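REVIEWER CHECKLIST
Item 1: Sequence provided? yes
Item 2: Single chain? yes
Item 3: Sequence as submitted:
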Amino acid sequence: MQQLGIPNDPYLIRWVLDFGLFSLRLHHWRHSDDLRNPHDHAWDFITFILFGSYEDVSPDGNETMHAGQCTYRTAEHKHSVHVISKNCWTFLITGPERRKWGFWVNNKFRKRNKYFYEHGHHTKEQTGLRNHDNRTRNELYPWD
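Item 4: Structure as written out by the authors:
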């Protein structure tokens, strides 16, 4: 089990079985990941939404994903996960790692460790968890 985010309040808890050529990942999204800047991945993947829903927030367009849906994403897909329901569970099947992953700040790639060193981990207040307050969509999705 791995907990991602701030140790006393992780945004994601995941279980990973890595077989080298592919991995199986069960994700429990407790709240949204970093909406300040989109990230990409080291591998292509298929994601199945098991329970709940989230919005895949991307500079290429947003897509709401609900339980029962599945989709394929390339490693280069830039996005953030904005959790809509209180708890969301997803199951991923990934391909082999084929690139370094990181965040995109003003359309410039930042390796994940450099990004976290420069920006720190996001807080719950930066996740969009309060998405029903008075913030504008532009404040929640700055690259729209």
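Item 5: Key structural point noted by reviewer: The longest strand covers residues 9-18.
Item 6: Recommendation: ____
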